[in-house]
Design brief:
The chain is of the alpha+beta class. Helix content is 29%, strand content 25%. It contains seven helices and eight strands. It has an eight-stranded antiparallel barrel with strand order 1-3-2-8-5-7-6-4. The radius of gyration is 20 Å and the shape is elongated. 31% of the residues are buried.
């Protein structure tokens, strides 16, 4: 397993009271909206220029919600993924007036140039993650998983042990895991996102290896059993690499 096996997102931190104090509820895991857009090659330039026009409108109207853009660089080309979040379920009910004001611009300048759009919601899964610093990350290796019916608990248990071992050993490979909600027919059940600063970093193997790290924490027999449980729960998986596109992203003015 390479150091970079997927995603881009902050993980919510659980808050615990110390002994003798009333326990506080854990902070809710962050929620994200994703939009995947397919653009015909002949429309790609017009699409990018249209996005920039729309972003200019958002800036002019003081839109407050950030949106990050990613270009798919492996697998299907001319695919873009846009992410809005970190947020909460309740916050998703709030509507920024700038969105309505710039809606006509989006329809004429952006929507007219893409051939397909899909959307899904994802929620962070901190117990299945081993997050690291996100500053200066440019590439994101995304591993997507469809689990066998009824095997979600086994998958999460096995991945949770892997994450716990990575935390305990301060393993140098970092990732975030998200559960996919309402992704539509054929969508993944889970995404693991591994951030990287460069192609060179993406090609580096972690030290120690995942196998060695697990065996150090659990022993050879238990590590092998956990891997077997993890693989048995997966119906199929796939992966892609995405590059952060600053020019097509929206970061609110401070």
């Amino acid at each position: 397993m390479h150091k970079n096996t997927f995603r881009v997102m902050a993980v919510a931190v659980a808050v615990f009271a110390s002994g003798g104090l009333a326990a506080q509820a854990a902070a809710p895991a962050a929620v994200h909206r994703f939009y995947e857009i397919t653009v015909a090659p002949a429309q790609d330039h017009a699409f990018q220029e249209g996005i920039k026009t729309w972003l200019q409108c958002l800036h002019q109207h003081g839109a407050t919600h950030a949106m990050w853009a990613f270009d798919q660089v492996t697998g299907n080309h001319n695919h873009y993924v846009f992410e809005s979040g970190d947020t909460t379920w309740a916050a998703m009910d709030a509507h920024d007036p700038a969105g309505k004001a710039c809606g006509p611009t989006f329809v004429s300048a952006v929507e007219a140039h893409f051939s397909k759009g899909t959307s899904w919601v994802a929620q962070d899964m901190p117990k299945l993650s081993h997050p690291g610093a996100m500053k200066d990350m440019k590439f994101f290796y995304v591993a997507s998983f469809k689990v066998r019916p009824g095997q979600g608990q086994d998958f999460e248990e096995a991945l949770g042990k892997f994450a716990a071992a990575a935390d305990k050993t301060k393993w140098d490979a970092n990732w975030d895991t998200m559960g996919i909600i309402a992704g539509g027919r054929g969508a993944a059940d889970y995404d693991m996102v591994w951030p990287n600063k460069s192609w060179a970093e993406m090609g580096e193997d972690p030290s120690p290896s995942a196998k060695a790290m697990m065996e150090h924490v659990y022993g050879k027999a238990a590590a092998a059993a956990n891997r077997k449980q993890y693989l048995a729960a997966i119906e199929h998986s796939w992966s892609s690499i995405y590059k952060y596109d600053k020019d097509l992203s929206y970061i609110p003015a401070k």
